[in-house]
Write a structure and sequence with these properties.
The chain is an alpha/beta fold. The chain has 17 helices and 22 strands.
Length: about 450
């Protein structure tokens, strides 16, 4: 973050100083919304959530070194009091961007955003100072917090942009107007809040390319018809990527090794180069191509891009995170979140990874699937059976039971079990696992199956 005095910040966000001894005190470090992540010289943004109110932690944040608290009311310690903390943090981020000039890259999609963001950051940071979204901090608070980590030396600002409803991306791009916009795919994640189906999701995701300037770049997935339908919604230059022959950034000769890691020939307008990913699953090829398309638009050559992808490693927890236990059990933790698209991709990747080894799937609910939720869970149950998983543990009431019923009805030899909750799933999995097994754990984040995966990994 570029240094700013409390007086300057108050003017930018339209706030008033309260209990501040020195209005010229400089804020020299990034902001945080978690008091445990406050760093000396930073700013603590006190937000009220469903489980906790940041205002209750204001004093502790100051003790940890925060210069002041951005708050909606006086908190008894140095504060910048505003009407709306979320709006204020966005205004501050927009102001900071006006003081520096990085290339802002926005990326969105129904699945694969975080992995693609991590790949892209690792390609770009080899060449210039890069700031990228931490974990999946991609919403109205996470995005401005990422922006506030940038400074005058930052050349690339990689921003994952989530959209839970129409208008979200318009808001986020208003804070950080992108020069390059990458759209990965359109699926059923958040369909419950966006409308009746994928067309409504596409309408929301397309807000990103609408925000691009005429001299910017829209990176569109040539293999997704809904993404291709966004071409008419942007003024920017369009660069297609994917596995289709018409894509200018594409993969040829795709193959998987014995650890289910993808290798391919990367083709860009500047030439071709071999890529061997360290991530498991063929679906990672499209994520890597998305990163390569952005890097191509920014002027990097094919060899530079391939070298970055070859060196890239998984950065974010809970996304195809692999732990090998001493007894030979392989735990694949993909429990950060789930949609039908990511569930299918994960199951296929694990099946490829396992080879002839015994496979166990511990699966919970996929959230926000609207009226089609039960049918989509049943589809996953049939896929588990079709891929010849040995064991399915369906976790939770409601739709996961449809998953279990469908797997049983497929009569493919899969042993189907149900668990009421995460604790029950852990007990069952612990009892059923055998040395050498591969166990896949996945559900929407609110189910909390990540705790099960971590416990199994540490067993």
């Amino acid at each position: 973050m570029i240094p700013m005095t409390l007086n300057t910040i108050a003017r930018v966000v339209g706030g008033r100083l309260c209990d501040v001894r020195d209005p010229q005190a400089p804020v020299t470090a990034p902001a945080a919304v978690d008091s445990r992540e406050v760093v000396p010289g930073g700013l603590f943004a006190a937000t009220a959530g469903a489980r906790a109110d940041g205002h209750d932690y204001a004093a502790g944040a100051i003790e940890s070194g925060a210069v002041a608290v951005l708050a909606a009311r006086p908190v008894g310690v140095p504060a910048l009091v505003v009407e709306d903390v979320q709006l204020a943090i966005g205004l501050l981020a927009r102001h900071l961007l006006g003081q520096i000039s990085p290339a802002v890259i926005g990326l969105t999609g129904s699945v694969g955003k975080t992995t693609t963001k991590d790949l892209l950051a690792q390609v770009l940071e080899r060449h210039a100072a890069t700031v990228a979204t931490d974990r999946s901090f991609n919403n109205e608070l996470g995005l401005p917090l990422t922006v506030l980590r940038a400074d005058a030396a930052t050349r690339y600002l990689v921003l994952e942009m989530g959209a839970g409803r129409k208008g979200d991306l318009t808001y986020l791009t208003g804070i950080a107007p992108p020069r390059a916009g990458l759209v990965l795919n359109v699926g059923t994640a958040h369909v419950e809040r966006m409308g009746a189906g994928p067309a409504d999701v596409a309408e929301a995701k397309g807000e990103l390319v609408e925000a691009l300037p005429a001299d910017g770049f829209a990176l569109l997935n040539a293999d997704d018809p809904y993404v291709m339908g966004m071409a008419g919604r942007t003024r920017a230059q369009i660069l297609l990527y994917g596995r289709s022959a018409e894509a200018r950034v594409r993969a040829e000769d795709v193959r998987l090794d014995d650890r289910a890691r993808a290798a391919f020939e990367l083709v860009t307008p500047s030439g071709r180069a071999p890529v061997r990913l360290d991530l498991i699953g063929e679906h990672q090829v499209t994520n890597a191509l998305g990163a390569a398309a952005v890097a191509t638009a920014l002027g990097l050559g094919v060899t530079e891009i391939a070298d970055g992808l070859n060196a890239a490693r998984r950065r974010s927890a809970g996304r195809m995170e692999i732990v090998e236990r001493p007894d030979g059990v392989t735990v694949v933790d993909d429990a950060y979140n789930a949609s039908p698209e990511s569930m299918r991709a994960g199951l296929r990747a694990v099946r490829a990874l396992a080879g002839a080894r015994r496979t166990v799937a511990v699966l919970g609910a996929m959230g926000q699937q609207a009226a089609a939720s039960r049918a989509r869970h049943a589809e996953i149950g049939r896929l588990v059976a079709g891929l010849r998983f040995d064991v399915l543990i369906a976790v939770g009431p409601g739709d996961p039971l449809a998953m279990a019923e469908a797997a049983r009805a497929a009569n493919a030899g899969v042993a189907v079990h149900t668990a009421d909750d995460v604790a029950g799933a852990l007990t069952l999995a612990t009892a059923l696992l055998e040395p050498g097994d591969v166990v896949f754990v996945k559900a929407s984040s609110e189910i909390g199956l990540g705790a099960c995966a971590r416990a199994l990994a540490g067993a």
